[in-house]
Design a protein that fits this description.
Elements (H helix, E strand, L loop, with lengths): L7 H6 L7 E4 L3 E5 L7 E7 L6 H7 L2 H17 L7 E4 L15 E5 L13
Antiparallel strand pairs: 1-2, 2-3, 3-5, 4-5
The structure holds adenosine monophosphate.
Length: 122
């Protein structure tokens, strides 16, 4: 799994293109999705060069894994989503339609979510 450092999230991490930042620490950056699919739609990315959950869990240090997942929880809490609830999704690879090859968890909130996956399987 080769990391492409020209992907859009790598450029955001390097400050080459802007983002609407909501949170940053040593391990993670969170920003609003450019095409939101819910009233709250925030992406949380690790700072290291990892393509996907598979790549990250294989190669990242324990500190990076812990720091990243703690950041996801912190972001959701700071967005006020703990009580009403929220959904986390991370797409991996072609079958899941992963568009950007830098690991990201989507945080969706602000409304009641429908079924987990459409019955058509899409
Ligand atoms: P995925 O299909 O899981 O790879 O999702 C990629 C997400 O990145 C999509 O929801 C896009 O709307 C979002 N996205 C792409 N480019 C940007 C950008 N420059 N800033 C914020 N979100 C972006």
């Amino acid at each position: 799994m080769t990391y492409d450092d020209q992907n859009v999230f790598a450029k955001i991490l390097r400050g080459e293109i802007p983002c609407n930042k909501v949170y940053e620490d040593d391990y993670a950056l969170a920003f609003h999705d450019i095409a939101p699919q819910a009233p709250v739609h925030v992406l949380v990315i690790p700072k290291g060069p990892y393509v996907s959950t598979a790549d990250f869990t294989e190669k990242a240090s324990d500190a990076e894994v812990a720091g990243y997942f703690k950041a996801i929880g912190t972001v959701a809490r700071q967005l006020g989503l703990d009580e009403p609830g929220y959904r986390l999704i991370a797409n991996h690879g072609a079958d899941a339609h992963q568009e950007v090859p830098h690991l990201h968890f989507h945080i969706f909130g602000g409304r009641k979510m429908k079924g987990m996956i459409p019955k058509s399987g899409q």
